[in-house]
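Example record for the data management plan.
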Amino acid sequence: MRRVRSASLATLVATALTVVSLTNATPAVAAKKPPTITVLVTNDDGVGAPGIDALVEALRKVKNTKVVVVAPATNQTATGGSTTPGPLTTQPATTASGYDATAVQGYPADTVTAALDQLGVKPNVVMSGINAGPNYSVVVPTSGTIGAARMGARRGIPAVAFSQDNRGAMQFPVTAQLAVDWLKKHRAQLSKKPKVAPTTITSYNVPNCPSGKPRGVLRVAPAPDLANYLVPLDCTATGPRPTTDVDAYNQGYAAVTQVPLDD
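Corresponding structural encoding:
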């Protein structure tokens, strides 16, 4: 009997220690939800254009992402960084797919001003596009797509511009996916307040390759001129890797450049 009692006592002690251990255990830390990123989307082709529609439809599917659309009421192609003095006229609108937007009676750069100063939008990033037609080399100063992105960067907000080849069937969804990829890659950085104001914007120029997508993404320098502008698109070109945006674009690459805020 003594042995039985000893075994029982030992069992009781072990059980008690287990209970104490479980009681004092540190609770599991719940997984922290990623912060929501606010993307201000604009363009220069107008709020109803197919390019901005493709961009918005892609971005709105990204988790923990708030998409705010503020774009020109009408086509403002080739208006560069022009701005309108005084208060801007805005009105409710929708994209081609019916996503809620705000239309601005003004230039592309005005849309950023209206969003920040009149509508109270506080974006983590400005995405401008997708433009129908390239905005590279010496075309940059006249591009409203670039002008809107530059305005965002001048206001201290990281900004990206997206432009699509207008030769052949437009492949807007391909460029929209590149925008999603860029956002995912930079998400952690964007969720924090920038320590230094941006000094450049990122600009994508994406060709329409017969395969349905570009052959890759290349970071290149802006071409000094449009000498090769009319070279036919060749998405299977061989030879040295291109080093300028025009050549990369003509050889089937999505050309990515860093564009300064001033010409």
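Summary line stored alongside the record: DSSP finds six helices and nine strands in the chain.
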